[in-house]
Amino acid sequence: MARLDTEELKKRLDFSERKRTLLKRMLSRARVAEDTFLVTMADLMTLLLIFFILFYSRGLDSKLVSAPTAHVTKPILKIEKSSTWTELPMADDPHRAAAAEAIKEKEHAKESQPAVSADSLASVHSRDIPNTPNSEHSNVATASLQRLEQEVLASLNSMDKRNFSVQIDRSRLILTLGERITFNVGEAELLESFKPTLTRIAGLIAAERDYRVVVAGHTDDTPINTDRFPSNWELSATRAVNVIKFLAMHEVNPRRMSITGYAEYQPLYENTGAENKQRNRRVEISLIRE
To answer: Does residue 43 belong to any structural domain of this protein?
Structure first.
């Protein structure tokens, strides 16, 4: 009986050992399967990441290639000169302090220079400009303008000269026709008494084919509000139109001419008195070298 029990126990132990081995194999297979699944998932995520990076880089390349040239040529950074001076600690470096002081003095000298206005530039006479070795063409143009200036002055009578001026400004000749000899106050019709003089001037201009002709009308700051001239813009422009029409009727090529109306916004003098206002009411004929 005891022997049977021993054999039975051995069988059970043997069965348990086989069962344990089987379970161990099954567990190892499960782990292998699990590891294989994780490796597969990791490979798939890596491929997706690579695909996304390639897709994104292609999108950037297409944007760079299709960008318009105008955007490339525009300046990317605008550097403006600072209006303030930043003081740096320089107590330990006397050479740096001396250099900074020199720079500050240079900046102060630039700021202290007097401003040059457009009116002052316009009043510079070309014959006052010194000749340079490279100004041969300019000298020829100036000589031509001076000759034309003398011819215009010679065509004027004594009455017209009192309200007429001729000025050479570099490459242009400016004929200023005062209102007293050209128009009645607030009107735009040319005075009959001035038409013979303007006819002679038109003949001189017609002969000078190398010049453009710009006619500009100017008024004072006195407001005007009529049916024909609601403001000084209309009055100044209409006066310029009538002068240019007269020149065109006397053989000045219309293709060379243009008009401008400045109203009261480019006065020669402050509109503070009757005499200054009268001087500001004018028409200017500018001959500009082509």
So the answer is: no
Residue 15, in any domain of the structure: no
- Nearest residue to 146 via CA among 208, 202, 196: 208
> CA-CA distance, 65 to 192, in Å (whole number)?
69
Name the one residue in this structure whose structure tokens are 């998932």: 41
Does pTM surpass 0.70? no
For β-strands 172-178 and 211-218, DSSP reports them as unpaired
Please check whether residue 90 lies inside any domain of the structure.
Answer: no
- Give the residue from 154, 269, 253, 262 showing the smallest Cα distance to 210: 253
CB atoms < 10 A from the CB of 282, how many? Answer: 25
Region label for 25, one of left (φ > 0), alpha (ψ between -120 and 50) or beta (otherwise): alpha
Mean pLDDT for back-to-back runs of 10 residues, the chain (290 residues): 67 75 73 66 80 76 54 44 43 56 61 46 39 54 81 80 85 91 94 92 91 96 94 96 96 95 95 93 92
Residue length, the chain?
290
Kindly list the strands in the beta sheet with 172-178, ordered across the sheet, starting from the edge strand earlier in the chain. Answer: 164-169, 172-178, 282-289, 211-218, 257-261
Structural domain boundaries enclosing 282: 160-289
CATH of the domain at 175: 3.30.1330.60
Number of structural domains found in the chain? 1
